[in-house]
Q: What sequence folds into this?
């Protein structure tokens, strides 16, 4: 009994630490954000296994206000009532014979694209996928172009290129002799 009492006394601390690890400790949950997602059943045979269902839930954002997917929120934040409700909707759709894409489309129809953990790779969203690589490539090309431009011509001493000097041809010849003599 002493062990049971100690375990129950430690439970609030463990749950608080668990919430801190998931990033939801300071986020006020908004249980009113839940909207039912329903489609008429296509068949009475489930369309996927439990593992596939769990993988599908990793692609659906919990709408409670946290930044977690439905699977992670319902398995780590036991104070959230939105993720279990969304999980029940996913199970009902899977049991109704709907495919993963049909289920995701149904959630997008109800919540909008914000319900997806990552934006779809189409339309304007492509700029979010392409822009970082285009900027990196453009920056690399700019650096290469600047380095080629700043490269001094072969055989010319760095001092002559770096400092523009004006003088008579005799003075210039004497200056070149002095510079070449210092290089030896």
A:
């Amino acid at each position: 009994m002493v062990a049971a009492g100690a375990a129950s006394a430690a439970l609030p601390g463990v749950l608080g630490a668990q919430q801190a690890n998931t990033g939801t400790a300071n986020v006020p949950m908004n249980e009113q954000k839940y909207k039912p997602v329903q489609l008429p059943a296509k068949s009475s045979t489930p369309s996927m296994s439990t593992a596939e269902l769990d993988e599908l839930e990793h692609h659906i954002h919990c709408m409670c206000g946290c930044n977690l997917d439905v699977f992670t929120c319902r398995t780590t934040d036991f104070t959230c009532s939105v993720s279990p409700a969304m999980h029940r909707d996913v199970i009902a759709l899977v049991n109704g014979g709907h495919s993963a894409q049909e289920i995701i489309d149904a959630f997008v129809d109800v919540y909008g694209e914000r319900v997806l953990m990552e934006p779809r790779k189409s339309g304007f969203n492509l700029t979010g996928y392409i822009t970082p690589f285009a900027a990196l490539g453009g920056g690399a090309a700019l650096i290469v172009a600047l380095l080629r431009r700043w490269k001094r011509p072969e055989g010319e001493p760095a001092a002559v290129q770096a400092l523009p000097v004006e003088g008579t041809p005799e003075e210039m010849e004497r200056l070149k002799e002095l510079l070449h003599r210092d290089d030896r």
User: Anything to note?
Assistant: Residues 1-27 have pLDDT under 50 and may be disordered. Residues 125-183 form one domain.
